[in-house]
Design brief:
By secondary structure, this protein is α+β, with helices and mostly antiparallel strands. Helix content is 25%, strand content 29%.
Amino acid sequence: MLWWSVLAARAGVVEDLGAASARYPKDAVVACSPMSDLVALLPELPVPPGLSSSPTGRLLLELTDPELSTALGIDPTGGVTMVTREDQELPVELALPFSGTEEQADALVRRFDPSAEGSDGVWSLAMRGHRFLVVHEPGRRWSLVSGSTRPPAQAAPLPEVLGGLPDVSGCAMYLPGLPPTGRLHFEIEEVVGFLPLRGGAPGALRFVVDRPLGPLWTATDAPLPVGRADTAPDAVAVISVPIQDLFTSLATSQGTPELADELRRHVSLPSGATLAAWGDPRHGGRWMAMTEVLDRRGRPFSPRRLSRLAVRALRDDAGVSRVGRDGLAMAFGDQTVYARFAEDGRVALGSEPIAPSIALASVGTPWLDGTDMERVRGALFTLSATGAASVELALRASGERTVELVVEISLDPSARDDLRQGLQPVLETVLGVMGEAPGMRR
């Protein structure tokens, strides 16, 4: 059950969101607070054609005007909550922060159904062929409830998965699990998300699974191999799980654990890996990668011996040839990957013949600096990319059964325009869920 702690200092937010999840423990809950910050984003969204012709559309447009919002009785400093159900088109419950009078509450009800009936803060109405209740809690909430009754609220403890979420303006999401899928070896029991409305914290997505995560989800303490280049990369990805553990897990899941046993008989891969890119490697951009290969006792191979071992291991899977005494060229389809082996056990890969030598050089710009190294510490996977959309992403285990994905995105003006266009069909869908999309009739 959900008991959201974001913006706990704002009156009623924790109480209202806790009550929503206690009433509907098997349904999805979305909560945003304060409503003023959510409404402030509406002018940035693409306006669907005919928005002002639908009751929901007109209401959304009025919410962007402080004077009209006050006239409706809406309290912009409070939070808004929506409960949805997978097999139901309209919301199970939509709760708006409301500080208006009983007359204003009645007027808002009749915006959705002029023939609604009710008294003493409770109305019955019809919308798109479905029955709803509206419950007015004076000075707190105006709630649109699906059906003819409202389940009673029950006290609920704060789930561990919600601990430590950002205490800033934002929207929170809770899902009581996801349907099982054959693609995963575990079931997802809870999903929690957080999206900041005005910055101040990154977005976060957490998954609670039905079993302990295991050692694969523990970041390695081994030194991370980092390369250098003549210019700073546009993107850097870091895998902090030992490559040997990843290979073992993959081989086991594919039903070929003997491959992992064969690898362990010859080499040790105790470190993670880093990958740097300049431009988009899928469209001609260059890339380099770095990891570490040691012998079974944890000592470096001689580059010549390691190159011979690699040729023998890859001869059936790639067109491989030695380059000098410490390098390889490997053909995969129409692409060639170049590798070079260092005396200290580091292995550099790249999309160009000179790339591995640049990565292993002692001069140039490190792919990661001291600040970057602190950022990746403890995370299983991180990605940092610059461009029209700058992204900082980190995947980590935040509990015995909890996986957390933290993402921070910054958009330049051109990317914002593309996002606006992409959001138009999404906005039209949301309006449909709330009651009536442009062009639809009740």
